[in-house]
Structure formats: structure tokens, C-alpha cells
């Protein structure tokens, strides 16, 4: 599984040719969640401590996505 990021014990990854809708996986120890890219819908649960960092990653990803879209115009 290609790793996009690794921070504070959380691995962010995407599978090649994974099912729709587009999403990434966040893995923390024995816990795994999927997060839809367009809606930021989270499927699964993390321990409370890891959830805070997951939210931070989503916020940063949203800013990068908006910047990329604005440059295409």
C-alpha cells in the first residue's frame, strides 16, 4: 500500500485501484479508518488521541485541495 504520510504513529495511505468513492486509509496501531476525499466522511473509529491528529491532517488536505483547484482556473 503506497504511503502518503506518516506522523505521530498514524500512517496515511491509498490503495491502487481501490473501490469508489475516492478515499484514503488512516492506520493507527490496530485501528483503521477510511476517509472519503470529497466529503471527508470518516468510516471507522480511532482512539480519541489519534482522532485529533486525523482531523488536523484532513484540514491540511482540504487547504491543499483548494489551492490546487484555484490554480487550475
What does this structure look like?
The structure is a single chain. The longest helix is centred in the C-terminal third of the chain and has 25 residues. A five-stranded antiparallel beta sheet has the order 1-2-3-4-5, with helices on one face. It has one domain. The chain is an alpha+beta fold. A hairpin with a 2-residue loop joins strand 3 and strand 4. The chain is about 35% helix and about 30% strand. It is built from one helix and five strands, in the order E-E-E-E-E-H. It comes from Candidatus Methylophosphatis roskildensis. This is DUF4160 domain-containing protein.
Number of strands: 5
Strand residues, percent: 25-35%
Q: What form results from the Cα inertia axes?
A: globular
Order of helices and strands: EEEEEH
Q: Average pLDDT across residues? A: 76
The oligomeric state is single chain
Strand order of the largest sheet: 1-2-3-4-5
Pfam families: DUF4160
Protein name: DUF4160 domain-containing protein
Organism: Candidatus Methylophosphatis roskildensis
Give the topology, please.
Layout: E1 3-7, E2 10-13, E3 23-28, E4 31-36, E5 42-43, H1 48-72
Antiparallel strand pairs: 1-2, 2-3, 3-4, 4-5
Protein name: DUF4160 domain-containing protein
Pfam families: DUF4160
Organism: Candidatus Methylophosphatis roskildensis
Write a brief structural summary.
With 73 residues, this protein is an alpha+beta fold. Helices cover 34% and strands 32% of the residues.
Question: What structural keywords apply?
Answer:
single chain; 73 residues; alpha+beta; five-stranded antiparallel sheet; 1 helix; 5 strands; 34% helix; 32% strand; DUF4160; DUF4160 domain-containing protein
Amino acid at each position: 500500500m503506497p504511503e502518503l504520510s506518516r506522523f505521530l504513529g498514524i500512517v496515511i495511505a491509498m490503495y491502487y485501484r481501490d473501490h469508489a468513492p475516492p478515499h484514503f486509509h488512516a492506520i493507527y496501531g490496530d485501528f483503521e479508518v477510511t476517509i472519503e476525499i470529497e466529503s471527508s466522511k470518516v468510516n471507522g473509529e480511532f482512539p480519541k488521541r489519534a482522532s485529533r491528529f486525523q482531523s488536523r491532517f484532513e484540514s491540511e488536505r482540504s487547504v491543499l485541495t483548494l489551492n490546487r483547484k484555484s490554480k487550475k482556473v
